[in-house]
Every structure is written in structure tokens, then in C-alpha cells.
Amino acid sequence: MKIGNFEIGGEKTFIIAELSANHNGSLENAIKTIRLAKESGADAIKLQTYRADTITLNSDKEDFRISGGTIWDGQNLYGLYEEAYTPWEWHEELFKVAKEEGLIIFSSPFDKSAVDFLETLDVPAYKIASFEITDVNLIEYVAEKGKPVIISTGIASLSDIELAVETVRKAGNENIVLLKCTSAYPAPLEEVNLKTIPNLKDTFGVKVGLSDHTLGTAVPVGAVALGAKVIEKHFIADRTIGGPDSSFSLEPHQFKEMVDSVREIEKALGKVSYNLSPKIEKSRQFARSLYVAQDIKEGEKFTEDNIRSVRPGYGLHPKYLKEILKQKASKNYSFGDRFSLF
Q1: Confidence class of residue 182 from pLDDT cuts 50, 70 and 90?
Q2: Domains within the chain, CATH numbers bracketed
Q3: Does an H or E element contain 210, and which?
Q4: How far apart are the first and last CA of the chain?
Q5: Which end of the chain is more exposed for a tag (fewer CB within 10 A), N or C?
Q6: How far apart are CA 208 and CA 231, in angstroms?
Q7: Is 233 helix (H, G, I), strand (E, B) or coil?
Q8: pLDDT tens-digit profile of 245-281?
Q9: Cβ(194)–Cβ(219) under 8 Å?
């Protein structure tokens, strides 16, 4: 599966910088953030494509007020999305800048009109946000475009994930990535449950990754070690500018630290191999082997005092020691000799 020119599932992890609301209402800041994402090592930048009235209703009824211990408690949904949305008239310019920077750019649509709009920009993939995983009509419409579909599972039960994957496949689309996600902002470490990542892969037979809302950079690295092939993390040029998502977004130096750590773990993961490299083979000189620990005369019995397993590794293999201790010397041996029966 490819997104743009990037092979998903290869040795290199696909690292997405999530712009979200971190433009803080400024096109200039959005452009700056995209360029900083490139400098920080991102492979892709992701937008969110909605208007407040495509994602909720302009109602002040209790149902439409945020509660439950979030960082947005007390706000009206419509007002929050009015503040956070990325104006559609910016998209063409943002796509242009991202491509100039060599970044893959795509988006999360939140209704069919957003999908239709993004199709005019020739997006290479679509992302289904966690809270939209139950919107099977939207998922079906996205899947029918035939492009890779990345789905966050933040609020999903197992049956929700099953239905979402089934919906994509029924549309004839097998290009699916499931992202383990914890929809808490920020996400507590004890609720991340990274061990779910390999289980998602085995259960659904798809590429897997992580959409991370923790405050640090360790969790994405752990996810890669467990098989994540996609990492998504909120990115902000400067957290002090504020905004709805600023508190759990990474600044450029933190994002670069994360990318560098991921690239290091990719190298360290390597492949299943019991072969020794020339460098490691050379280090075998420090292994144990059998050496003469005392002068031994011909006919003298071998003991644990005069034959010992010590470093370095040039003598006989220690596995022969028990057998040797049953025998007598057939010649003279000097202290420090590599032990050999021959």
C-alpha cells in the first residue's frame, strides 16, 4: 500500500504531523507550521476538513455543551469547532506549500461535502477520526474513492472496529490502516495499552499504527517496537500561542526528538538473525574458553584448579571441561597455555 510515494508497511515508519487547530486562525502560521514539520522530520502533514455546521448543530442545549473532564469542558461544540476549523479556502495554498516542501498532505473529512472537496485536491489518502468511526455512511463514501483509509480507534469498541473495517472492505477497498488511539487529551500512559497494536494487526489483517495524544515522545517509539507502521502526533510551531489542541501537541524540537528516536529504533529492530557480523565475531575473543591455570606434568590428573574456563576465547570450548576432568595429561602443560588435548 502506498500513500503518495511512501510504502506503508516497509522498514520505515510513516510519521504524520497533525496540524489540527494549531494554526490558531492564521494562514501564515499554518504555512509556517507545515515548513517546520518538514524540518522536524515528518513524512506527512494532516489537516482536518470541516466547518462547524458540517460536524455539529449550532445549539446551546445541554447535549451540545462539552463535559466529562476534558480540557474543553464548558464550551459549546459549535463554538469550539468554529475556533478550531481550518478554512477551506486555505486548503489549496496549504497543499501547494506541503508539496513544495516534499511533504505528503491529506486530511480527515467529517462529512461527504468535505470528501467531495478533498477529491478536487487529489488527496492520496483519507483519515477517519476517532469520533467518526461509527459514521459508517461517511466511511463507505470515503472507501469508495479507492484510496488508503486510515482509521483511528480512540472511542471504538471491538464491534465498532469490525464494522468500520467491514464497511471499507465491502466498498472493495483493502487499503486499510488501523491506528491505536486513546481519545483523552492528553492521554494518560496507563490508558494507552500499546499491546493492542500487534493484536489489531493479527485480528484484522491490516497495517497498524498509533495516533498518540500523550505528552511525551516515548510512546510512539514503543509503538514502533511493537509493529506500528504509522505514527500520528499533533504538531505546533510554538505551544505558547495557545489554541484548543496546543496542550498535547509537540513543538518542533520535541517532534524531531521523536522522529530521531523512531528512526533509531527502526535500525535496532533489524530482522530475525542469528548470524554474527564481523564486528561481533571479533568480540568472541572475550568469550570463555579452557586455559591451563597451573603447570601440569605428563601423567598428572586434570582438575578444576589446573584447567579453568576463563577469558579470552582462544582455547578449547568449555563444554568439554567435564570430560577432560576424567583424564590425565598426556604431555606437559605450562601456565597460561591455551588448553588442547592435541
Answers
A1: very high
A2: 7-50+85-269 (3.20.20.70), 275-342 (3.90.1210.10)
A3: strand 207-212
A4: 60
A5: C
A6: 9
A7: strand
A8: 888 899 999 999 999 999 999 999 998 999 988 988 8
A9: yes
